[in-house]
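Because showing beats explaining, we think one record worth quoting, sequence and backbone structure tokens together, and here it is:
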Amino acid sequence: MRESIILQTFGVSSPHPCQQAENVLIPPYVTPDIEEQWPAPEKAKRDIFAFFRGKMEVHPKNISGRFYSKRVRTEILRRYGGNKKFYLQRKRFDGYRAEIARSVFCLCPLGWAPWSPRLVEAVALGCVPVVIADGIRLPFPEAVRWPEISLSVAEADVGRLEEVLDRVAATNLSAVQRNLWDPARRKALLFRQPMAAGDATWHALRALEGKLGRSWRRQRQPGDAAWR
């Protein structure tokens, strides 16, 4: 495995067995037809301030609830479940993408892993991702420029989440949304069929090309014919 280059969605900044081999961080797969649901910026009706739909364990005797998401999701529900600015839902719903397209901020807390497809879905549907996962590495940072289209909130600062979102909404939300509405950033996170220049497959191949080139150069000695 350590002689391989691994394509993976699991990206963390701390040492981890999954990253001991050379790797390329890619986005979680989301079906390309999500682009058909893209709301035009001038027509988007964002009537949900902060949105999350997903698993949120709350029962103290449930072992999953004690460890899942480092209790971040449970804390979000406990603090904001009764707050009308937060639309928090635990049950599955086939039309959840329509909810994302109506939302200003989409909460993306860690689960068992720091990433999930909801991060890509939020970007694809124009909802500002709020990443709550300490030490996460995000895919294709040169192309997507995550600090320009998303927010990062430390796991320990969940109690200040409303304050953070209110401050962004009152100051630079329009700039973040303009960056988010750049079609090139959406394209970079989606695996199209067939592949198109600038899509996720294209960026993955470019990253592989760079790593293979560096690996080939390291294996050659200056006296080798191939080096010359």
The chain is about 35% helix and 15% strand. The beta strands are 5-8, 22-25, 48-53, 86-89, 103-109, 128-132, 151-152.
